[in-house]
Amino acid sequence: MIAHFPNEMTTKWKMDQTGKIKERIAKARAITVLTGAGISADSGIPTFRGEVGLWRNFRAEDLATPGAFARNPRLVWEWYDWRRGIIASKSPNAGHQALVEMEKRCPRFTLITQNVDGFHALAGNRNIVELHGNIWKVRCTQCGQVSVNRDVPIQILPYCKPASGGCGGLLRPHIVWFGEALDSRDIEKSMAALQSCDLMLVIGTSGVVWPAASFAEVAKSSGAYVVEVNLDPSAHSIVVDEVLLGRASEALPRLLS
């Protein structure tokens, strides 16, 4: 069933639908959430493809690759520094905060995100799988050490500091780039959460990026009740049990009220 939400609900079926979802959330013993760019768009973060044309006419697909970094690491770091500056000026919204409250209420809660902005952790969520990495983390291209770096602007080019126990190697963003595999541990943790939850929420994602595009179907086939919250119908919509069309920052708080 698809309902427009949170527009004024003047029909009984809309109220029945949201009431049913609220009841499912309240009774759930294990909840798994998948989030995409839509939840952070409500904080003013440009969506992945929406932001690309704003920076020197480069496409993200031409910058977020191992090859691009090998050819011109300074250019890639300048782009990420620009993105970090945008994110640093924004804050988690009411949708993020609602998921923090949901985690507090649910005995077993796992949040899987495709976003790299770090807003879920900043808002207060704890059990998070960052499928595509985190823009506030850096990784040494030589020793592999991962560390947090919230400098804005960041030093370009950044290096693994020997004074802090580093090897002096060039640092790269701790992001999964095009052509790179996801961390197998993140996939394993995600699959375990999807196969053991009784409720799944799919929030603000188009459902076209794999393997996350298959997650709703995995959860549903394992017996979970699956709800999508999105501005528009997506590839997930034909799989899930309920679709709520609206902003995550408005819909999620209402589902917990």
Attribute tags:
7-stranded parallel sheet, 257 residues, SIR2/SIRT2 'Small Domain', Rossmann fold, 3-stranded antiparallel sheet, alpha/beta, disordered N terminus
Task: Describe the structure in your own words.
This protein is α/β, with parallel strands linked by helices and 257 residues long. The longest helix has 16 residues, at 12-27. α7 (94-105) runs parallel beside α11 and α9 (184-196) packs parallel to α10. The chain has 2 domains: 1-44 and 91-132 and 182-257, Rossmann fold (3-Layer(aba) Sandwich); 46-89 and 135-175, SIR2/SIRT2 'Small Domain'. The chain is built from 11 helices and 10 strands. The model is unreliable at 3-13 (pLDDT under 50). The strands form 2 sheets. It has a 7-stranded parallel beta sheet, with helices on both faces. Strands 6-5-7 form a 3-stranded antiparallel beta sheet, covered by helices on one side. β5 and β6 form a beta hairpin. It is elongated and about 55 Å long.
